[in-house]
Design goal:
The chain folds into 3 domains: 3-119, Acyl-CoA dehydrogenase/oxidase, N-terminal domain (Butyryl-Coa Dehydrogenase, subunit A, domain 1, Orthogonal Bundle), CATH 1.10.540.10; 122-228, Beta Barrel (Butyryl-CoA Dehydrogenase, subunit A, domain 2); 231-379, Up-down Bundle (Butyryl-CoA Dehydrogenase, subunit A, domain 3). 54% of the residues lie in helices and 15% in strands. The chain contains 11 helices and 10 strands. It has helices at residues 3-24, 28-34, 39-47, 66-79, 81-100, 103-114, 230-267, 279-308, 313-343, 349-359, 367-379, and strands at residues 120-123, 139-143, 146-157, 164-171, 180-186, 192-194, 208-219, 223-224, 269-270, 273-274. β2 and β3 form a beta hairpin. The longest helix is centred in the middle third of the chain and has 38 residues, at 230-267. Bound molecules: flavin-adenine dinucleotide. Residues 89, 121-125, 130-131, 155-157, 203, 208, 359, 362-364, 366, 368-369, 372 line the site of flavin-adenine dinucleotide (FAD).
């Protein structure tokens, strides 16, 4: 890697660490409580120039690597996983527009998205097809220079809040039953509506809603990439970039849990001794430290392989997302154990970290699908 690239990554990490600690973390608990969308936090990131970070220089971005995205997500994940998830979804939409949209669509959306004046999201999953993205049934029928979109999506992060959506649809199912395409659908499109915000266990301020498409007319110019190859657009952007963001969020959550548990074990005194003097507690702490470092190290290794060889981004994304998300659940669970009854109460942050971590093993590809994908790649299936 070029020295200048490392410099950008370090600069970006230091900047986002400061912003996250000073401007985003202090209100994370409040947003978790009232489910408020992290609009101000997104504005703060835009003001810091962080929303255009991974967009190519050619289109006004900083051309930062996947490694930089992983570091950004890690720092945000430490502070507020909901804000981190909304940011990663936005960046996924930006990357898809950068890599697959026409010049007109790029020019219309990227400057606004990088400046935080428009928010992006991605919408793949549907209630009937669930975790199987290849089985979606939302259709887009071509009618002159428009597609007519009908169907629905569910659990979409930032739905109702975002201005523009990367939507996976089935184009022309009669002629090409397998063909999926990626379309950019604007929030104001007639016939597009949103369900109520889901009352989730964690990631509570990330606004997950259903989306309903009722004869939505979308210009053919909003097709991303080639018709019939929508899953490639999803693979390149949601997985090839977004999974490093998702893994980073989990690593950030895990690091925050380790810090809080160690501090508590040193400060909480029972019968004149801090609980950290007990070997059983030390054992929990040691396991948490090693597992969080292992997750961070695997993320660094996988993302640097993906940066060096983008064709390996999907398999490396699967590996790091699986390990980081499951590690964060185990680590936050141990942190609650160390903090005893306190850790089980809403007043203590580890309880939120556990709930947030749990959602990341379900987000986009579940752990079961990831295990299968990793094994199938090894077996050549
Ligand atoms: C916090 C959060 C944010 C999300 N954000 C977005 C978003 O922005 N955009 C978006 O498109 N989607 C989003 N999703 C949706 C998410 O991708 C789906 O919830 C996920 O893919 C699982 O689908 P499902 O809930 O329908 O579970 P199901 O598909 O019903 O699966 C239930 C269980 O069965 C297992 N299973 C199902 N089929 C198989 C199989 N063939 N092999 C092995 N195991 C299987 C699953 O692994 C899981 O354990 C989000 C979800 C969450 C929780």
């Amino acid at each position: 890697m070029e020295k200048s690239e490392r410099f950008i990554e370090k600069e970006a990490r230091d900047l986002v660490r400061r912003i996250a600690k000073e401007r985003i973390a202090p209100t994370a608990g409040e947003r978790d409580g009232n489910g408020a969308f992290p609009r101000e936090a997104i504005e703060v990131l835009a003001d810091g120039g962080l929303l255009g970070m991974v967009v190519s220089e050619k289109y006004g971005g900083a051309d930062a690597s996947r490694t930089a995205l992983a570091l950004l997500a890690t720092e945000l994940g430490r502070a507020c996983a909901s804000t981190a998830l909304v940011t990663v979804s936005h960046i996924i939409a930006e990357k898809a527009i950068e890599t697959a949209a026409t010049d007109f669509v790029r020019g219309k959306w990227l400057p606004k998205m990088m400046a935080g004046r428009a928010l992006g999201a991605f919408a793949v999953h549907e209630s009937n097809s669930g975790s199987n993205a290849g089985a979606i049934t939302t259709t887009a029928r071509c009618d002159g220079d428009e597609y007519i979109v009908n169907g629905s999506k569910f659990f979409i992060t930032s739905a109702g809040e975002a201005d523009v959506y990367l939507v996976l649809v089935r184009t022309d199912p009669d002629k090409n039953p397998q063909g999926t395409s990626a379309l950019l659908v604007e929030k104001e499109t007639q016939g597009l509506s949103f369900g109520r915000a889901e009352d989730k266990m964690g990631l509570r301020s990330s606004s997950s809603r259903e989306m309903f498409f009722n004869d939505c007319r979308v210009p053919v110019a909003n097709l991303l990439g080639v018709e019939g190859r929508g899953l490639q657009v999803i693979g390149q952007n949601v997985i090839g970039w977004g999974f490093f963001g998702a893994a980073g969020i989990s690593v950030g959550i895990a690091c925050a849990a380790v810090d809080l548990a160690v501090k508590h074990a040193a400060e909480r005194t029972i019968a004149s001794d801090p609980i950290g003097v007990h070997q059983a507690v030390q054992s929990l702490i040691a396991d948490m430290i090693i597992q969080s470092e292992a997750a961070e190290t695997l993320l660094a290794s996988c993302v640097s392989k993906a940066d060096a060889s983008p064709t390996s981004a999907m398999i490396n994304g699967f590996k790091t997302k699986l390990f980081a998300s499951e590690s964060a659940v185990e680590i936050t669970n141990k942190a609650i154990q160390i903090m005893g009854g306190h850790g089980y109460c809403r007043d203590y942050t580890v309880e939120r970290l556990f709930r947030d971590a749990r959602g990341l093993t379900l987000h986009f590809k579940t752990s079961e699908w990831l295990r299968q994908d990793i094994a199938k790649a090894a077996l050549g299936l």
